[in-house]
Amino acid sequence: QVQLVESGGGLVQPGGSLRLSCTTSGFTFETIGMSWYRQAPGKEREFVANIDTIGELRNYADSVKGRFTINKNNRKKTVFLQMNNLRPEDTGVYYCRRGWNTADWGQGIQVTVSS
Question: How far, in Å, CA of 10 to CA of 29, rounded?
């Protein structure tokens, strides 16, 4: 049974940082890439970042390039999203996804950027 559990969200001021974690179980983590998505209120879920199997290839949405970093720890079966210089428009529910196009999602975690 695939399980994805996000943590690390919360309220932060503009310009601040957060580090999201997604701990996983129920599949062979080291053989698959991982992704982060987000959904702002009233908007569709959108791609944020993904990473390949061994953590060498990373892709980012234009809106987060240079501010967010995705990393993968195969030993801990965890994927991370380091978010720096956060902006109010980064507010939303953040989801991790097994792979790049599977139907396996975490439950999501709220990130709110506000002064």
Answer: 26
> pLDDT per residue over 61-97, tens digit each?
999 999 999 999 999 999 999 999 999 999 999 999 9
Task: Point out which residues pair with 109 in neighbouring strands.
Answer: 94
For residues 45-52, average pLDDT: 97
Q: What residues contact residue 105 under an 8 Å CB cut-off, 6+ apart?
A: 4, 37, 95, 96, 97, 98
Instruction: Count the neighbouring beta carbons within 10 Å of the beta carbon of residue 93.
Output: 19
Q: Are 2 and 90 in contact (CB under 8 A)?
A: no
